[in-house]
Amino acid sequence: MVDGQRGPNVLVTGTPGTGKTSTCALLASATRLNHINIGELVQGLELHDGWDDQLQCLVINEDLVIDHLEEKMSAGGNVVDYHGCDFFPERWFDVVVVLQTKTAVLYDRLSNRGYMDQKLQNNIECEIFQVLLEEARESYNKDIILALPSDTIEDMSNNVGLLKEWLRTNAPSYLID
Fold this sequence. Notes:
By secondary structure, the protein is α/β, with parallel strands linked by helices. The protein has helices spanning about 20-30, 40-45, 60-75, 105-110, 115-130, 130-140, 155-170; strands at about 10-15, 35, 50, 55-60, 80, 95-100, 145-150. The two termini are about 20 Å apart.
């Protein structure tokens, strides 16, 4: 675990639609980790600089997010869910999970969410070019990065199992069972 930290912190990242929120929710319910959904946090606490019409999303204020989370992340025991990772301090995370989804599966998921035209294309290209995996590799020690498939419910279950096993080895007090 990170020096001076009382519990583990896990970052789950990936292109929108790869299953980050579902994976984090399942992991949090199976452990003593606190699920932090950055998108909900930003919206609920207005940690943003307004709306981007072109990208159809809030413009996150990274400094406000970091300031808001610093104490909680220092205490540890969190699983963080966000589609970006390069602005979080490297010291926060013990493991960084990049979920990856086949583009046909991702296309269906995002279409079902109502993503249209440019936003849909941008996210598909992001997955094709493995933008989030590269971002993680540039931001964190390669030894803590896990790239995991997230195409099916079985993949999600396997990913949660793998992370529970990681906790069993590194922070058993965070397991419920």
